[in-house]
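1st attempt posting a full record on here, be nice pls
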Amino acid sequence: MNTIPTHKEPTCTLQQGRVPLLVSMPHIGTAIAPDLRAHYMPRALQVEDTDWHLERLYNFLGELGASVLTPTLSRYVIDLNRPPDDAPMYPGASNTELCPTRFFTGEPLYQEGQAPDVQARALRRARYWQPYHDALTSELARLKAQHGFVLLWDAHSIRSEIPWLFEGRLPDLSIGTANGASADARIAQAALQACAAHPTVSSVLNGRFKGGYITRHYGQPHNGVHAIQLEMCQNLYMQEAPPFHYAEARAATIQPVLKEMVASSLAACRSCYEK
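the predicted structure (as tokens):
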């Protein structure tokens, strides 16, 4: 399928903050360019595998002074948390692609014969993937120049049970630092300790989700850039089945935990550079 995407709206939005913290939410977009929609299965237009409502859940970021980067397009068009060469993030397991071709349940996203070919994937990467990463790179550089270091928090959410991707039920909160390579250990421990203060919420460090491309690529502790991914179960704050409603009461319970995790991680990052 060689359709050239023509989505003309801004592909991402950056809100610049005042502290050395950039929060990336690469999978919250829901738009599919009109000229691409006919190629998908009708079910795909409901974009069920979105990281729903994260902007609302993380509504404390302005108070903390964080920069926030968000996309407009659905991950069904381009997965901003996959490497540009489309190498698998988790060898030996089911993986989603740079231009996904399957739902999280394993069924085809596209009508037969309509999945993007090599040329179409390259065009999507240039037009949609690259601007997000240009913005991310630029903001990390700005914050590091201003503060001397920066923490990148990559925010995600997912249904608690998806057999095609993983066995059983996920822990509530999965913290990933690429097995320690993307952030100072004190930062990961601060996030874990914040979770431990809330024993009804389960957590794990570098379990099934160790961090995707954003965490692994940009996390360079030796250069003053620390990256941490948080994958959280959606049933903590929303209805996991259509129509994917936000659950106010549940969200109000988990929001203080998230805020404490982010704030504690930032404080730990600062402590790494105190003289």
